[in-house]
Amino acid sequence: MSLAARLWRFLPLRRGAAPGPRLPAGTSGSRGHCGRCRFRGFEVMGNPGTFKRGLLLSALSYWGFETYQVISQAAVVHAAAKVEEILEQADYLYESGETEKLYQLLTQYKESEDAELLWRLARASRDVAQLSRTSEEEKKLLVYEALEYAKRALQKNEAHFAAHKWYAICLSDVGDYEGIKAKIANAYIIKEHFEKAIELNPKDATSIHLMGIWCYTFAEMPWYQRRIAEMLFATPPSSTYEKALGYFHRAEQVDPNFYSKNLLLLGKTYLKLHNKKLAAFWLMKAKDYPAHTEEDKQIQTEAAQLLTSFSEKN
């Protein structure tokens, strides 16, 4: 159906139904006035032709307003439909492992005000930064770029779990360029956003997995970093391998085999807890995980090396 035809369906069926001009205060039919009175620009009583033209103009104005409303509503619907189409393309490229194509698609909409687009753009920027062929200079630019997109996504929608999750991830990445003091200070903020993401969506296995990584990282913090943290903060961030293990298992319960790194970290955490039998079980699962991405291949290699390492010791 043509746009004109669609608009016509929304126009008033009765052309004469347009409301006439309202009477100004003090002129509601007083008999003491002469035969020419003005009703907001329309001369009546003494000039019937002018009055008819006024009614016609009023009706046309009404139709124009109705048409404007229809066009505005159509534009909003069209914009929403376009965003949905872009998101579908983006998710398809992400699932297909087309990292660079996804980034190229989404950067066309980097000025968007849509949180759904922005957090995906943060993720895409970070994924390109993680590619082995990305130079160190480009990686740094992309890491800070990703943080800006994640920050904007959070500003646009503070109730979106993915915005909290990717803001925390990107803030963690930036810490690699800002020194140990900034990294430890940011750790509190990162934890808060991961916890908020889990609260908003308890079924998102990735957010739970990332909270596990946070715990694992601070459980294995080197002694010299721990000393710095104690000097800088009254209560430095800390955690245990048991807590990390709890989050990794919880993520696996929510979505079994969702991520090769969760399997790897289950194995590594059991190694830290000196449970070689369960460590071998999870490392074998990580080694046999189908490699869809470059990261999956790296995880397969690391899992195989760990299995070889402690089997030789036995």
Question: What features would you describe in this structure?
Answer:
The protein has 2 domains: about 80-260, Alpha Horseshoe (Serine Threonine Protein Phosphatase 5, Tetratricopeptide repeat); about 260-314, no CATH class. A hairpin with a 2-residue loop joins strand 1 and strand 2 (about 40-45). Helices cover about 70% and strands about 0% of the residues. The chain is globular and about 60 Å long. Helix 3 (about 100-105) crosses helix 4 (about 115-130) and helix 10 runs antiparallel to helix 11. It has 12 helices and 2 strands, in the order αββααααααααααα. It is mostly helical. About 30% of the residues are buried.
Helix content: over 70%
Summed up, the domain count is 2
The CATH class name of the largest domain reads: Mainly Alpha
Instruction: Please provide the ordered H/E string of secondary-structure elements.
Output: HEEHHHHHHHHHHH
How are strands sequenced across the largest beta sheet? Answer: 1-2
**CATH homology superfamily of the largest domain:** Tetratricopeptide repeat domain
Strand coverage percent: under 5%
Low-pLDDT stretches: 1-46, 74-78
Rounded Rg? 32 Å
Task: Count helical runs.
Answer: 12
